[in-house]
Design goal:
The chain has helices spanning 7-10, 16-27, 31-41, 58-67, 83-96, 107-116, 118-121, 123-139, 180-189; strands at 47-50, 72-76, 99-103, 144-146, 163-166, 169-172. By secondary structure, it is of the alpha/beta class.
């Protein structure tokens, strides 16, 4: 049986065999039990949880709030969020008693993308400046990065596993194998609030310049072939 306490000693040099053992242990658990187990295997100070406070972020955030109120939730403030996203963030923060910390790009770099309208010409570069780099600055302080990705959301996400090593951090997706139907049933049963733009046909919500109504992630980057901002690649 895999000794999860040893993980603390081997990250970031965790072996494939150890990650395989983690996945075997966690895959048979429910989403809530996976989160409970996470805090048995890691200290809260070793865990980085991110949320975009997008369409159905309440699902993952409610689960974490019930397991560990001390977990900080990092929100990447790109400066280009819909006003509805910022209001949704405040609503969930208050409802679940979340500890939210916002991070953002360097002022001059963000201002460059605004003046340049970089999202219209080089969306990958815009995402790199306003999303990827701000998180990279703090990422090396943590051993585990938690994200609410689900495998049905995109072709890339369907290839993921509950645990995987990305660079020098262990990625953890407690909701990965939750189906869309299971997610929606949980949201309905617990009366969780959807992002207000969902009612207007937005089912995946990012920056206002690059998001249009659409099913699943089809409305991201204005139907450009780009499907990921780069955070999870």
């Amino acid at each position: 049986m895999f000794e999860t306490t040893s993980v603390k000693k081997v990250i970031p040099n965790i072996s494939e065999a150890e990650i395989k053992a983690l996945n075997k242990t966690y895959k048979r658990l429910s989403a809530t039990d996976r989160i409970i187990q996470l805090y048995k295997d890691f200290e809260v100070s070793e865990v980085m949880l991110t949320s975009s406070f997008a369409a159905t972020s309440a699902f993952l955030l409610k689960l974490f709030s019930e397991v560990n109120k001390n977990q900080t939730v990092f929100f990447i403030d790109t400066g280009y969020h819909f006003e509805e996203t910022l209001k949704y963030k405040e609503e969930l923060t208050q409802r679940y008693g979340l500890k939210v910390a916002s991070i953002s790009a360097l002022k001059e770099e963000h201002e460059f993308t605004t003046k340049d309208e970089t999202w219209t010409k080089h969306p990958d570069f815009c995402c790199s400046i306003n999303k990827v780099k701000p998180l990279d600055i703090i990422k090396n302080q943590y051993k585990v990065w938690v994200s609410g990705l689900m495998e049905w959301q995109s072709d890339h996400r369907s290839t993921l596993d509950v645990f995987e090593l990305r660079g020098d951090i262990l990625k953890f997706y407690p909701l990965l194998d939750i189906s869309k139907q299971q997610r929606d049933a949980y949201i309905a049963a617990h009366d969780l609030p959807f992002h207000p733009l969902v009612a207007k046909g937005y089912n995946s919500i990012g920056c206002k310049h690059c998001t249009v109504p659409g099913d699943d992630r089809n409305g991201r980057w204005n139907n450009n072939p780009k499907t990921e901002c780069g955070l999870h690649l």
